[in-house]
Amino acid sequence: MKWITRERPKIDRIACPWLIRRFIDPEAEIIFVPDSQVKLQAETLQAIPFDIPGVEFTHYENQCTFDYFLKKYDLKDPALHVMAPIIRGADTDDHAAASQSAGLWAISAGMAFLIRDDYELLERGMFIYDSLYTWATYLPQMKHVQSPTEHLLLQIYRTYLTQKGEKKTKVPAWTAELRNMIQNHIDTNLSLNLKTVSEDLNINPTYLSREFSRYFDDLSFGEYIRKLRIEKAIQLLDTSTHSLSEIGYLTGFSDQSHFTRIFRQHTGKSPSEFRKNLAKRKADPKG
């Protein structure tokens, strides 16, 4: 069978070809074309289109195309269903769906940024998903820190640091640690979610969600992260020659359209309009 989808794959458009070749059709041919040509080329090449709007193999509600393949072909392998929320969370930018989603997104975005040939990107991605499948099959409960004693010592140390910091200042000690974590996230294009942060800080996620806005500009956790992403995007628009797609990658957005939509919500302008205005100001400082 031939399968066809949009060019420049990252998550779903690599995870689905992996699933097709490993569990549905080992000889499947995967074809990448510009978005506007997918349906036309599908008819010409007699290929099945996927991961675009208006076709059978696509997103439904909060489910991504990978989920639909599992349902369509009635794939029961438990490891695939462990992988599904990880892929869904990475593909829909909902990193609360699974703790591994942020890591998958970061690796996939980095690969797409480094590798410009879609077919080479797919071959490299096959190894990533083979590895994820192996983990989901044999290692999902394994932790990097294996020793119970080491776990206990880490917990005691974190509790000690928190209590010690709270004695010195009215501002909870976790706020400083969290600011550093968020800054590292922004600087390295890693992704944070409330569940992961609460585990790292050894704080109840409900408490963290409730208290966060008191110490971070009266914004919720998600609003604050988006604000910092937009601020970094503005800096890159002003000081770099990166394309808008590249800036979207570097600031953690799932694709350029997602980047443009959130940027417009925050600034009232699209990234391209904002960059043009910056250029005009530099060219005519008095204007």
UniProtKB/TrEMBL annotation:
- Which keywords fit this entry according to its UniProt record? DNA-binding, Transcription, Transcription regulation
Entry's Gene Ontology molecular function annotations? DNA-binding transcription factor activity; sequence-specific DNA binding
Q: Which stretches make up the HTH araC/xylS-type domain? A: 176-277
Spans traversing the lipid bilayer: none
* Presence of the UniProt keyword Transcription in the record: yes
| Compositionally biased intervals (Basic and acidic residues) | 272-287
Q: Which InterPro entries match?
A: ChrB_C, Homeodomain-like_sf, HTH_AraC, HTH_AraC-typ_CS, Tscrpt_reg_AraC-type_HTH
Tell me the segments the record calls region Disordered: 267-287
Keyword Transcription regulation recorded: yes
| The protein, known as | Helix-turn-helix domain-containing protein
Lineage of the source organism? Bacteria, Pseudomonadati, Bacteroidota, Cytophagia, Cytophagales
